[in-house]
Amino acid sequence: MTALTQSQFQSRFQPAPPPTRALPTLPRRAVLGLPLVDCGRAQVISALLSGQIRSVCFVNAHCVNVAARDRAYAAALARADALLPDGIGIELAARMAGGGPLAENLNGTDLTPALLRRAAEQGKSVFLLGGRPGTAERAAARLARDIAGLRIAGTRDGYDGVRDSARALAAINASGADILLVAMGVPMQELWIDRHLDRLTPGLVLGVGALFDFLAGNVQRAPAPVRRVRMEWAWRLLQEPRRLAGRYLLGNASFLARALGRSLQAAGREAVIKRTLDIAVSALLLMLLAPLLLGVAAIIRLESPGPVIFRQTRVGRGGRPFTIYKFRSMYMDAEARQARMRGLSDREGICFKARNDPRVTRIGRILRRFSIDELPQVLNVLFGHMSMVGPRPALPGEVAAYPDHAFERLRVRPGITGLWQVSGRADIGFERMIDMDLAYVRSRPLLLDLLLMLMTARTVISGRGAY
């Protein structure tokens, strides 16, 4: 998906003057109309410290809800140099939009200390602005203790410390700080930065929300296991139920409804029906086949060492990579041995298939014969990586060798089944497979999807072309 330009984003909310600075060249992706940075933490930190970027806002589900009703805040976001994705809500919205997950969750609580560690190595200093009286000082002391060599240029609270804007600006500028952290909460911190950025001398200004409270010990952060499963919002809700109930319970529901509505609007009627069908069928299959899946997993583990599930990178819609799930049907060194077996392929073209592949285990031959090894891909369908019906998901190396016309098959999600699968599978040559996939991509009637799913059952039972 192509990221919106700054002017397009502004038109979604409130018209705003165009920025006087050129938009920094970081990868971006449009999520809910917001041009969010879409790259890893290391690349972001390098850009922030290089002078490319002056103002940074972290965007989570709450921010999106606030922007929908606060035109001044939406305009401030539009003028920011970089919007960084923060939290599970934004990731879900990105997935709903059909583009897969963003590169990384760039929340301010984790990214800012990492940024300051790099800044300390470069001899840069930081000023902390915001929080209740005493909070910025305690946060600064914690940062100085945790990050060797970090220079604290100064601190100022977010109450009386900012009541007189001229004095606050004078204190910040006189400190000689290279980086300014502003912790006043959404939307106040973004509005303050937007209003005063042109009169600030620090080269980098970030709105960091509750970071000072975490560092000062005012609020206990969620344990690492809770953060890993992306449930930090629930931890915050348990700590402050009265203050945060509206934000997290009603707010999350409102955000998800907004994300779903936008994704449905963008997808079109047929795409919505197809996606709904995918979710319903994959969820039903998971429930019905659970005993079989567990039994197969146990047999695989008994026959040969190694993980039950085989994970491999494949290329999905729009050329985006994703991890495909299959029951492991080969020995653990199968991929390493494939390069030595290229001459054994039974199929013409760039896709490798060998009827008597020595890398396949005994149970693996049975799983492949009846396509049972493909069953974990219902998880890929449920997660939105794949569809029940679509072109075969290709390997990155295969895509790199595609002739030009074959790239059209990447316009849609790859499928568990399709025209190629019900017409002979591995007995079909590469060029014929491409012709079938392109015919499907150019038509895609829902009735054909239903027919192909029914035909798949017959093909699986016959085992034709499966090896």
UniProtKB/TrEMBL annotation:
Q: Which residues cross the membrane?
A: 279-302
Q: Report keywords, A-Z.
A: Exopolysaccharide synthesis, Membrane, Transmembrane, Transmembrane helix
- Write out the ranges of the annotated region (Disordered): 1-21
Q: Per its UniProt record, what InterPro entries does this chain match?
A: Bact_transf, WecG_TagA_CpsF
**Entry superkingdom:** Bacteria
Q: Where is the Bacterial sugar transferase domain?
A: 274-461
Where does the record place Polar residues bias? 1-13
Give the similarity note.
Belongs to the bacterial sugar transferase family.
Checking PANTHER family in the record gives: COLANIC BIOSYNTHESIS UDP-GLUCOSE LIPID CARRIER TRANSFERASE, SLL5057 PROTEIN
Question: This chain belongs to which protein, by name?
Answer: WecB/TagA/CpsF family glycosyltransferase
